[in-house]
Design brief:
It is a single chain. The protein is mainly alpha-helical and 418 residues long. The chain has three domains: 246 residues, no CATH class; 124 residues, no CATH class; 34 residues. It has 17 helices and two strands. It has a two-stranded antiparallel sheet with strand order 1-2. Helix 5 packs parallel to helix 17 and helix 16 packs antiparallel against helix 17. The longest helix has 33 residues. The radius of gyration is 21 Å and the shape is globular.
């Protein structure tokens, strides 16, 4: 009994460290640009991947891993092309490092997806979120020179453990969604712990507010609204007719038109403008000055921003300090791997959307909607920030985990129907 308990604890620690390592290079400033961090992170990830393989063997899941990897082939074209881009990368060692991390992420995410169910995955992510929020709060209170961002036009914005307030804001937004899902599950299962989740959810929303990140505000509002719609759909879907869906789409279209016609006023609410705080001019300059020179294959997987001349050169758009990311996850993929890389990534990304929609359509509870909630988060958040494998691999890890979970679940359902 003690042996089983210790084994279970070691497995949960393995998942926790996978989530931790996937965030490691986004903590405390732009440390992912430092060579020693590259070496340490590669070593840690390699150990983690080996442990996952050993666990796959222990539970006789290696054959299942290969089968489900084939079923999730949509990640392989981008993975292979990213590896090939090492040969023309402007920083081959960096591209190799990031490619290895992607390789380890696929192994680790595959293991977690095969080993655990959605409830366990959500709880593990929630536990990590709880750890992040409270450690960040400690930094804000006791070490504000680290936990609070004061920078020219950014004053008193909480950044906690992360290198930038926008990154912290989006992480806090994601954590708040996890806490909300736990609230819903607690009410469904009539657990007393629901009051704890409610308090944590309220605190996470307060944390989002204190980050002063408009991207986090909008993401939080849209996803909370989306979850309300999900709950209504679960309750009334048997009564919903086709024309109800049509009316809803028309309503969304009208809202979009009204928002577009009043876009200046909308951004004015957040004290921002339609340039997305200078991002649109920056993207234009990035495209016309650098990307146009290497449009097909890019500068090499995750290599562009390691060039000091690029970071400094991008200051021409008016930023006070060197720019270190494109502030858009899809543009970063485009710059690093070109049109080919973005196209191959789109195969993976759109495929993940399709698998998530299919999972949600058959859903009977909020947990089954988690894959599509995640995909919606990655879409909204990556419009004004880079959260897809630029200076962290957290959300790529979760996407791969959920893809393996979905394919595992589909296989189990298929076996039961035989």
């Amino acid at each position: 009994m003690i042996h089983k308990s210790n084994l279970r604890t070691s497995e949960l620690l393995l998942v926790f460290f996978a989530i931790l390592f996937s965030n490691f290079t986004a903590f405390f400033g732009t440390i992912w640009l430092r060579p020693m961090v590259v070496l340490i992170n590669t070593l840690l990830w390699s150990i983690l991947a080996i442990l996952c393989i050993l666990n796959l063997r222990r539970y006789d899941l290696l054959s299942n891993f290969y089968i489900n990897l084939k079923r999730n082939w949509i990640i392989l074209p981008f993975f292979i092309f990213s590896g090939i881009s090492i040969f023309w990368s402007i920083f081959r060692d960096i591209s190799l490092y990031r490619w290895l991390i992607l390789f380890f992420t696929i192994i680790t995410g595959g293991y977690i997806g095969l080993r655990y169910n959605l409830q366990e995955i959500i709880k593990s992510l929630s536990s990590f979120g709880l750890w992040v929020i409270f450690l960040s709060l400690i930094l804000v209170i006791f070490m504000p020179y680290i936990g609070v961002m004061n920078y020219i036009n950014i004053q008193d914005a909480w950044r906690g453990l992360y290198w930038h307030k926008n990154h912290m804001g989006l992480i806090a937004s994601f954590v708040s969604i996890l806490f909300l899902i736990n609230i819903i599950n607690s009410f469904r299962m009539k657990e007393k712990i629901k009051f704890v989740w409610i308090l944590l959810y309220i605190f996470s929303l307060f944390f989002v507010y204190e980050t002063d990140s408009v991207a986090a505000y909008i993401t939080t509002l849209l996803l909370n609204g989306g979850i309300v719609l999900i709950l209504l759909w679960l309750k009334f879907r048997n009564k919903i007719q086709k024309y109800h869906y049509l009316l809803f789409l028309v309503f969304l279209l009208l809202i979009s038109i009204v928002l577009y016609l009043n876009i200046d006023r909308f951004f004015g609410i957040f004290n921002r403008n339609t340039s997305l705080t200078g991002r649109i001019p920056m993207w234009s300059y990035l495209y016309n000055t650098y990307f146009i020179k290497r449009p097909i294959g890019g500068y090499g997987f995750n290599a562009f921003w390691y060039g000091a001349s690029h970071r400094i050169g991008m200051q021409a758009v008016g930023y006070a300090d060197p720019i270190v990311i494109a502030d858009n996850g899809f543009i970063d993929i485009l710059v690093n791997t070109g049109f080919i890389g973005l196209f191959l990534f789109s195969i993976f990304y759109l495929g993940a959307w399709w698998r998530s929609i299919k999972c949600a359509w058959k859903a009977n509870e909020i947990n089954d909607f988690f894959p599509i909630i995640l995909m919606a988060f990655t879409l909204i958040a990556n419009i004004s920030w880079s959260l897809i494998f630029e200076n962290e691999s957290f959300f790529m890890l979760i996407m791969i985990t959920l893809l393996f979970y979905i394919s595992k679940n589909e296989m189990n359902v298929a076996k039961q129907t035989l």
